[in-house]
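User: Teach me something about this protein's shape.
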Amino acid sequence: MRERGFGVLAPADVAALCGHPPAALAAMRGSWDRLPEDTYLKDGGRYRRRRHSCFVVEGDAVTQAPHRAHWQPRDYNALHGGMRRWFEPIEADVVAQPAWGGLLRGLGRLCSALDRARPWYVEAHQFRIDTSDGIGRPTPEGAHRDGVDYVAVLVVDRAGIKGGETRVFAADGPDGQRFTLTEPWSLLFLDDARVIHESTPIQPQDDRDPGHRDSLVLTYRAAGFQGDS
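Assistant: First, the predicted structure itself:
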């Protein structure tokens, strides 16, 4: 992180970070089967399902914030920026899982170690990208930054797909890396000020059996939630 602005953690390291065994993380996986459709896609696609909730992490305390719209400025999201997008909240039984709170706390400690201890305003996004239309786009906005301090991208599941390569590039130079996260609960952690990122489109391995890519994105911001005055 300090040298290149990003790091990758294996599932076992993610489990250690959140202080719970891999099985505790896997216990949340079924909730991705119940994500509602994202009706805000401006490219006309119907390939994305999602939920969204917000939290404040301060030390070991994790507090869920009142439900709110997701908002980004156009400078960071040219496709969907400037819109107040209301998504259904993450299910209460997921938020109540010990591994959920452990994950938010563990990443908060990592952010504070890289910067300094402070409250972190966290937006949590559950995504399912499917190939029912023939192609699914994990990042329809293209290579981007999120307008936060740190971004954690966890791959929860890949089933019956090809593609979905992760690309990370220095924001102010030619340095870049390309790789594919395949193991459930592997983590890409990003310094949002220093790098831009994207994931390439996915396609089905078998046209008769559309697949999907599930992910959890957690953004950490010290200056409050985006969209607050």
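Now, about its shape. The mean pLDDT is 94. The longest strand covers residues 48-58. If you'd like, I can walk through any region in more detail.
User: That's plenty for now, thanks!
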